[in-house]
Amino acid sequence: VKCQDRLVRAFAMIAREHENARLLLVGKPMDRIFFDEVCALREELGLTEKVAIIPGMERAAALKLMKDSNCFVLPSAVEGCSISLAEAALLGVPAICTDVGTAYDVAEISKGIRVIPGTGKGILQIHHKELWSILCSDQHDFVETLALSMNKAIYEYDFLHAEAIAAIPRAAEWFSMDRAFDRFINVAGHIRAASL
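^ that's the sequence the OP posted. Answer follows.
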């Protein structure tokens, strides 16, 4: 559901036009078969020198790597409140993400975050069999949209980076414990009122 295979396919289009572009896929593989498929796809597309797959990394090192990156890409088909998208916002890293979960809410924080159409309907409108069908299809239109967005981010990097850096204080407020606590108390109040 994280769609790294589609990201690798989109990056293949980018790599043809931008020879210095690199893609880093960082994170513990949740599905060994899918991980092996992504590794094989990287080789099939001739991207072994341009796409690094790092299956595990200490959190501090992963955050430093993210901070040092030019862009964070979240191509997920399904996502709730993405911690990694929040981390990108807090670190001042431009981001491209699909329109799932809280993407639009987080994008309100920064003009350095671009939201693109995802692979299908929202998670609340999708049946598990339909999700499986989406995940098994090649999603060429989505891959192309993702590649176009990544290409645009390369050309607009200075603007996106400045906006992402300027938005760090808003992100820090948005993701603060005080704000989370206030929202929790608000929700609890509504639940209590509804139960009376």
